[in-house]
Amino acid sequence: METQKKKKVKPSKVLDYLKHDDPFSKGVAFCPGCGLELLLRFIPQVLGNDIVITGTPSCSAPVLLGQNKQSWHTLSYFGTLMTGAAANATGLVRYYRKAGIDNTVVCFNGDGTAADIGFGNLSGAAERNEPFIYICYDNEGYMNTGVQKSGTTPFGATTTTTPYGAVSKGKNLRRMNLALKMAMHKIPYTATATLSNLADLAKKLLKAKEAKERGFAFLHVFAPCPTGWGADPAHTIEICRRAVKTNYFPLWEAENGKIRMTQTVKKPKPVKNYTELIKKFSRLTDEDHEVLQDDVDYEYCILGGLSVLESECRLPEEAPTHEAKGESR
Amino acid sequence: MPKNQYFNHEGPWSDATGPLMCTDTGDWRTKRPVVDAERCIFCGFCAIYCPIQVVQMKGESHFEADLGFCKGCGICAQECPKNAISMVSEEEFQS
Q: Can you tell me the distance from the alpha carbon of A324 to that of A256, in angstroms, rounded to the nearest whole number?
């Protein structure tokens, strides 16, 4: 009776997406509970082991690059500088096209490279519509060098360059919405994903691989850093889940700049529900929470507005069709 | 024969043709996940959310973590919908 009952429960559907082997060795030197490690092991299991990863100095680099003549994994990796990550991937793609090799180039970087240091050539590669996948894992700061603030660090977060004290009360500026910026380049595919919705992430990875045939694909993945944020390692997935449930990190995708929400939350919770798990927000007062809540609501309103804008504002008779737009790229 | 397809060397100095590097990450652990086989319903959430991907199915009974590499982060215990996994301090296992 007991075993029959057990067999009725089906394993999670996410396991069906994991069609390929895990190319990493078991004991890899990431912090316990690291969101990046889960993402890094997930990508080759979904996309296949024939990908070429190119990346920059970040938390992922010591593992992807290898140490002391030995390697942590059997993927192909090309390490480069933060100022030229997307330009380097462009060169790789063009070489493989000339050599007649069919593979997927994945440019795998943190938010520091994508949003701050390497944004110029990321924007350039998107404008030229280079056919590769750019994945930005967003841990909201320069975690590898000791938790400095970056462009995607949210309002009120305590970091080593925006400490809490007599003068500074955490970061006093709002974060940038990197994925929306990239969607406005009208590239074939832009998406945001997080680690609590792994089926959604796997679908978006496969869509990005498909969109790569037509041009640039950008994926923005929210990956918490328990060490840098002062969170319990056990709460990594819970933080991702609450970020989605509070609309702090809404999940959406955009094809050729046309935004579509992939997950809408019916009754979004107040952002305090998300910040209470994280120590870097522990100094926020109620007024600060209101500012953060306003920022979250504002960004969500813009996204929601953009997702219905085309159907509401377009003039029906002289509107170009969606297919014609895609061909012109 | 090199295992990776495109480069002979992974980066400036590392080489994937030999055995892979592996750290004894099981040594970092202060708490260990203990699975209650009776309550396990085979949903597999612990296996997919485990950052190290070391939670494996143990025959027909339950899921269990490979303690050689488990870092003891506790994500499996947090995400288990039936609360079948509890984190027990390593002190209790020292004989």
A: 11
Question: φ and ψ at B64, to 5 degrees?
Answer: -145, 145
Measured in degrees and rounded to the nearest 5, phi and psi for residue A134 equal: -110, 115
A78-81: long-range contacts, CB 8 A cutoff, minimum separation 24 = A78/A52, A78/A53, A78/A54, A78/B7, A78/B11, A79/A54, A79/A55, A79/B11, A79/B12, A80/A54, A80/A55, A80/A56, A81/A56, A81/A57
> Which pLDDT value is given to residue A2?
47
Q: Does A138 touch chain B (CB under 8 A)?
A: no
- How large is the average pLDDT for residues A143-159? 93
- DSSP-H helix ranges across chain A: 2-8, 14-17, 35-47, 61-65, 85-99, 111, 119-128, 178-183, 198-211, 226-229, 236-245, 272-275, 286-313, 322-328
**Token pair of A273, please?**
């529900």
Which residues touch A79 (CB under 8 Å, ≥6 apart)? Answer: A54, A55, A56, A57, A61, A64, A65, B11, B12
Of B3, B21, B72, the CB nearest to A72: B21
Dihedral, A227, A231, A233, A234 alpha carbons, nearest 10: -170
List A109's β-bridge partners, or say none. A136
Task: Supply the ipTM of this predicted assembly.
Answer: 0.88
Question: In the CATH hierarchy, which fold is given to the domain comprising B25-93?
Answer: Alpha-Beta Plaits (3.30.70)
- Calpha distance B94→A145 (Å, rounded): 36
**Interacting residues of A165 by C-beta distance below 8 A, sequence separation 6+:** none
In a domain, A298, yes or no: yes
Q: What is the DSSP letter of A114?
A: I
The residues that bridge with A105 in the sheet, in sequence order, are A52
The CATH number of whichever domain residue A273 belongs to comes to 3.40.50.970
Tell me the residues of chain B between 18 and 77 that have a Cβ less than 8 Å away from chain A. Answer: 18-26, 28-29, 38, 40-45, 47-54, 60, 66, 68-69, 71-75, 77
Q: What is the mean pLDDT of each run of 10 residues along chain B (95 residues)?
A: 56 65 88 91 90 86 88 93 93 82
Q: How many domains does chain A have?
A: 1
Asked if residue A8 has pLDDT above 60, the reply is: no
Residue A216 located in a structural domain: yes
